[in-house]
From TrEMBL:
PANTHER family: SERINE/THREONINE-PROTEIN PHOSPHATASE 2A REGULATORY SUBUNIT B'' SUBUNIT GAMMA, SERINE_THREONINE-PROTEIN PHOSPHATASE 2A REGULATORY SUBUNIT B'' SUBUNIT GAMMA
Domain of life: Eukaryota
One GO BP annotation of this record: cortical cytoskeleton organization
Organism: Actinia tenebrosa
Keyword Zinc: no
Entry-linked InterPro entries: EF-hand-dom_pair, EF-hand_13, EF_Hand_1_Ca_BS, PPP2R3C
Protein's UniProt name: Serine/threonine-protein phosphatase 2A regulatory subunit B'' subunit gamma
Keywords: Calcium, Cytoplasm, Metal-binding, Nucleus, Repeat
Location(s) in or outside the cell: Cytoplasm; Nucleus
Length: 453
């Protein structure tokens, strides 16, 4: 007998038992046919709310997956939540190894190293590794696992790992946890991400702890913070959501670059290469002030056109002002920083995404012959102004498509540019006369100078 027939018989029996009550309820409209079916079916199947053997207690303990944040007028709930988060972070902080415990760990590793010593580096095998684990204390136990040992093993003939590499691994893990806790203190929402204002507060309070920024005037702090924060958001928030995951901040190298400024002996070359250094921040802001010839604190199209070598095409500058946030047709410092980060990092996906949006004149999600010609005509006009014979567009168009090799032979998508690794070159050809000249003369530029015998 099928389950349908069984169900029908069961329903009929129930109907006969309670014919009078069920009939009156149905006729009165108190229970619909669907409700009656549900009632009888769940009783027959032994629903958790029923009294049958099929009752499953786990249905009463389904975990909650969403917790609504307290509203602004729920002051008590907000304070309770903040205090509980603070207590949680304090407990996590106490679980980390402090300096004394790290020194003790190094002492134990040094004491129990496994001979023979090859060169200057001490090694330890798995047996001694476990011996150190038993003496190092509870906080160290998570680091002394077979998984960690195997990750650090590098084909030593005696089956050992480097003590220094292991200790550096522990130090790095402790630093990551410390930094995550430090960042989480600024996570106002408590959702695992930082808004722009949260990150600004973090960096502002970090400045006094960075010796390389000792010389900064306090009046420049707000501009420095803006400069530093923009790099995080330009690269880690390409969709412009206004927030960044703390995990993403820890995973990228930007925080390492920022905290590198704790080193008092940082060389000039290292400072120049570090976006977060005082010389670098002053350079970017100084360029902005130099471009602002009318001293109104904003940049017009004509002012921005003098950026760098002044060889960016007028068409490109016009498109920048069409696509980017402006105020009464002028660009502020924050928008300028995005512009600089895009042009100084043209190889990076986020920079190419920024430039692609500008090159995509019609907003269709790809570059076609029209859009390429739209920008290259400005390059041709600038070449004529400088007394050069303009290059034919058809030749350049073919070279671009040959370089990119798009899936569609008539359309170049952003993904095509990223896959080709030629996005920087394509963008430079279309927006910058100097970039185009460098591309055209690439063979001459790489030739080695002839040395006379």
């Amino acid at each position: 007998m099928s389950w349908a027939d069984t169900l029908k018989r069961y329903v009929e029996r129930k109907k006969n038992e309670k014919a009078e009550g069920a009939t009156s309820a149905y006729q009165d409209g108190n229970l619909t046919e669907t409700e009656l079916f549900t009632k009888y079916y769940t009783e027959w199947k032994g629903h958790p709310k029923g009294k049958g053997k099929g009752k499953d207690k786990t249905f009463n303990t389904i975990p909650k997956f969403y917790y609504k944040l307290p509203s602004e007028d729920e002051v008590l709930q907000q304070k309770l939540r903040e205090e509980s988060r603070a207590v949680f972070l304090q407990r996590k902080s106490r679980e980390l190894l402090d300096n004394e415990e790290l020194q003790n760990l190094w002492f134990l590793l040094d004491k129990h190293h496994t001979p023979p010593v090859l060169g200057e580096e001490q090694m330890i095998n798995y047996e001694d590794f476990l011996n150190v684990s038993s003496q190092a204390g509870v906080k160290c136990r998570p680091f002394f696992t077979a998984t960690v040992f195997s990750k650090l093993y590098q084909s030593d003939p005696f089956g050992r790992i480097s003590i220094m590499q292991f200790f550096n691994y522990v130090m790095r893990k402790v630093w990551l946890h410390q930094t995550r806790i430090g960042l989480s203190l600024y996570d106002v929402a408590g959702q695992g991400y930082l808004k722009e204002s949260d990150l600004e507060n973090y960096i502002l309070e970090l400045i006094p702890t960075l010796p390389q920024l000792d010389g900064l005037e306090k009046s420049f702090y707000s501009f420095y913070v803006c400069t530093a924060v923009r790099k995080f958001f330009f690269f880690l928030d390409p969709l412009r959501t206004g927030k960044i995951k703390i995990q993403d901040i820890l995973a990228c190298s930007f925080l390492d670059d920022l905290l590198e400024l704790r080193d008092e002996d940082l060389s000039k070359e290292q400072q120049d290469a570090n976006w977060f250094s005082a010389p670098s921040a002053l350079r970017v802001y100084g360029q902005y002030l130099n471009l602002d010839t009318d001293h109104n604190g904003m940049l017009s199209k004509d002012e921005l056109a003098k950026y760098g070598s002044g060889t960016l095409t007028k068409v490109f500058i016009d498109r920048v002002f069409q696509e980017c946030l402006t105020y009464d047709g002028e660009m502020d410092y924050k928008t300028y920083l995005d512009f600089v980060l895009a042009l100084e990092n043209r190889k990076e996906p986020q920079a190419l995404q920024y430039l692609f949006k500008i090159l995509d004149v019609k907003g269709v999600g790809y570059l076609n012959i029209f859009s390429l010609n739209f920008f290259f005509r400005a390059i041709q006009e600038d070449m004529v102004k400088h007394g050069h014979e303009p290059v034919k567009f058809l030749d350049i168009k073919d070279e671009i498509f040959d370089m990119v090799k798009p899936k569609d032979p008539y359309k170049i998508s952003l993904q095509d540019l990223l896959n080709s690794s030629q996005g920087e070159t394509v963008a430079s050809i279309l927006i910058d006369l100097n970039g185009f000249w460098t591309y055209e003369n690439r063979e001459l530029l790489v030739q080695e100078p002839i040395v006379d015998d």
